[in-house]
Amino acid sequence: MDPKKNSKIAERNYEVEDYKRNDQMSKGLAETHEQVSDSYMDGDNEEELSE
């Protein structure tokens, strides 16, 4: 893969419009954003401390 293309992909962040877009990157970002958001709202983001 082209290094310039890799850099462009790595710089991509979630945008609200990703839910409406049909490309693989947008779909992946929208799905990941939804999963993180759901976990956060459910309170599933607690760290387990091991002693």
Automatic annotation (TrEMBL):
Region (Disordered): 1-51
Entry-linked InterPro entries: DUF4025
Compositionally biased region (Acidic residues): 41-51
Domain of life: Bacteria
Biased composition regions of type Basic and acidic residues, renumbered to the chain: 1-36
Protein name: DUF4025 domain-containing protein
